[in-house]
Amino acid sequence: MFSTACRFDTPVDVCYVSQEENWPDVFTNWWLAMNENYAFWFLDSPSSQWDEVYDTYLPLFQKMGAIDKFDAAETSLALQYFYEIIIGAGNMDESIAKSDFMGLSDMHYTLYLSLDGIYSISPRSHIKASQLGVSPEVYFDMVLREDASNTKIEYDTENFLNIHNAYFTLSDDGTYEDMDFAETSEHELFNDAYCMSQSGMAIFLGLTEDRIAYLSFNQFKMTEIEENMQFRHMMEKFEEILSICNGLIIDLRGNRGGYSFDQNILFGPLLTGEKKYFASERIKSGENRLDYTAWMPRYVYGHASRDFSKPIAVLINSASISMAEISAEIVRALGKYYGFDTAIIGTTSAGGFGTLANDAANIIGTGSMTVSDTVALVYTPFLNHRYRNGICYEGKGEPVDIEIEFNYDNFVKGQDDKLDAALKWIRAFSQH
Q1: Mean pLDDT, rounded, for 97-120
Q2: Left if phi > 0, otherwise alpha if psi is -120 to 50, otherwise beta: which for 120?
Q3: pLDDT category, 24, cuts 50, 70, 90?
Q4: Topology (CATH) of 154-355+383-430
């Protein structure tokens, strides 16, 4: 039986205007749509701060008046207002509105505004700015100039393709290959290696000389390709390696997430069919911001005859998001509550745990929505998620047990500090 949480806000009448002619309508329609469909108000507006945003910014949009999509100064000002709200004027040194609102916690969130082009604004812009070592104000100018790239940061560089590009070449033709790793790279880390690429999902599986298994993939798309012969062959190899290995490394750096059902495919060979509780989730249940269903438990389970008894290390970084973070969280729970030997290694992940659904315009509680011609899309989850200890890491990221900062100079020279740390951690078990 579902029940709603206590609420402190009052119902609002919804009336979206599909063809806005002025900026107050654009802002009001977006504010109302967010009020009903955004899933993280318990973090971002526990005491009606969202109402304060409305009271603060509506007069500013009213001063702008009618929309002129080809007025560059007007476009810049509108984007500035939305940027301040989304990343939090309270996080900026100089905000136009002088608001104390600290922004949105949802790291999936992206607002797409259709003006003289399609502009996108995300809370991760603030994170990106921090990684680049620039202020949110300077980064906003970079966004407007489309000059916000820098490869010397973990977010852009340390991802699946860059990690393995020097090791092997993947095509997207569904080809499966068995290969001698040492013959395809100067690195001789793995004695045996297997890779495949199918429907945009690339997977690498390796085994070191001292039998440490290594699995890496770029996104969670296993549910979609589960019946593919190459993928099934890959998973058979994975189970074969698990039966002889001395430990497992799951590398989720740069993994952008995907299907939530993949959790039981990934952990299937590691766990028995006995369900293991690791998190709880809930969704919006009404028009009011703090209307939610009860928290419902989320479990993971597998099909193995017995639970995997060797150490498991997971590698994450600031670009690991969504199902990548949830998978690391599963491994953390296996260690803390079920007696597995586990370690999360690297740097704190992105902080986007919410589950996404398809766009469902103006339907309460469904997350992503199209509001109008100007607010072309609000991309946001319909569900919020918290670890079984009751802590919601949305906007904070999955913490690590062993922190290894990204070293760009080492990385481009072929020294993978985080992978080395994982190997060292697993090898320490064999010395006991």
Answers
A1: 89
A2: beta
A3: very high
A4: 2-enoyl-CoA Hydratase; Chain A, domain 1 (3.90.226)
